Amino acid sequence: MRFLLIAYEFPPSPSPQSLRWAYLARELVARGHRVKVLTIHLGGETPGLPELPPALETHRTFAGPVRGLLAHLRDRRQSRPAPASTDNGHAAAVSPLRPPRSWKQSLSEAAQGFAARFVFPDVRGEWFPWARRALIRCLEEFHPDIVISSHEPATSLELGLIAKARGYRWIADLGDPVLAPYTPARWHARALRVERETCRGADHLIVTHSGAAGLLANRHGPRSGVTVISQGHASGSAPPPTDTPFDPRRLELLYTGSFYHFRKPDDLVAAIAAHPGARLNIASVTVPESLLRAAEALPGQVRLFGFLPHRRILQLQGSADVLINIANDDPGQVPGKLYEYLGSGRPILHIARQHDTSAELIASLRRGWVSDGSLPSLQRWFDQAIELKSANRLEQGLDLGPESVEGYSWPALAARLEAIAEQVLRQPASAAPAAPA
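Predicted structure:
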C-alpha cells in the first residue's frame, strides 16, 4: 500500500506525537509499504531519535512566518561547530537544564502566542497555506491508497478533509479531541466544527484511549470504524548503557517526561529526602522551581539530567531500579511515557491521586506498584522498596518479561494500523465532506 502521512510533528521534533509516527512509519516501511510524510521544515537536528529507513520519503515545507523564522535560527545555530560527543552521537554530557521560563523561551512563546491569536488552532496553523499546496502536489504525484492525518495540530485534520473531498481514503489519528480543555475560547466553535467534520468524514478514526472514543461518541453520535491504538514501546532497541550513572548500592529511581501543571513532585521529593538510600533522577528539559531548589538542597538524592536524547533515555530506563510515572489529570488517559516504560523491563511506580486506567494496566500486567501520591503512602513504599533492593528481591512478584507487553510494541501497533488500512480499502467509499477553504 501507499501511505501519505500528514504529520506536523515529525523528526527532528522530539515530541511524543513525533515519536509515535516515526516508529509507526518505520514499521510500515518494514512491512513492505511505501510511505511518504508531509511535514514542516523544523530546522536543526535532534540526536537520538528513532532511525528512519532510507525508503521513507519526506516532503518538508515552510512552516509559516513565525515557525519558519525559528527554523531558520535553529539551522544557523546548529551549523556552528559543536563539541565532540560519544555513544553514537548520544551526548556524552547532558544538555543544560532550563528553568521554567528562560528569557529566550519567554520571548519565543510571546511571539508564538501573539501569532496564535490570528490562526487556528494555534501558531502551528500558519502552516496551512503552504501545506495545502504541498498536499495537492503529493496527492497528484504520489497517488496514495491511504491518507493518514496526525493530530495535533488540527491543521492536519483540515488537510485530511481536503484529501477526502478529492476522493482519497482517509484515516484520522486523534490524540486529544480537537475541542479540548486547553482550547482558547475564541476557537471553540471552529474546533468543534472540525472535530465533527472529522468524525463524520474520516473513513476510520484512531484514538489513543477508550475515553476519547466515548467523548467523541457523546458529542457527535456513535459510529463504526473507531479503533484504539495507544502509544507504544520500542522493545529490544536500546541496549544497556556501558556508562550507567546509577549506583548499585542505592535505590535508583528515574523519571523521564514533562511536568505539566497537574504533576506535582513535592511529596515524592519529601519522601526521597527521608530515605538517604534512594535517589531520584529526572530527565526533563524544563522542571518546576521546586525541583530546582530540591536538587540544590539534596544534591546526593535529587539529580537533574536536563535534556537527553531519546535513545539515551531508553538506555537509562532499562538500567534504573524503578521508573516513576505520574498520572494524567484525566483518569481515563494513560501517559504515553507509561507505554515506553513497559518496554524497558523495569518495575514502575505509578503515582495517582485517584484510581485510573494506568493503575489498572500496571496491576493487570504485574508491572509495578501504585501509590496514591500522599507522603505517608510514598514513605511506606520507600521503606519496603529499599529493603527489597538490599535483599535483591525488588522484582519479586512482578512479571517484567517482554511477552506480556508485546501487544504494545510499535511493530504490533503498526500491524493493527495495516489491518485498519486494508479494511478501509475493502469497504465502500463514504461521502466526502466539504473541504475547508
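Summary: The two ends are 29 Å apart (CA to CA).
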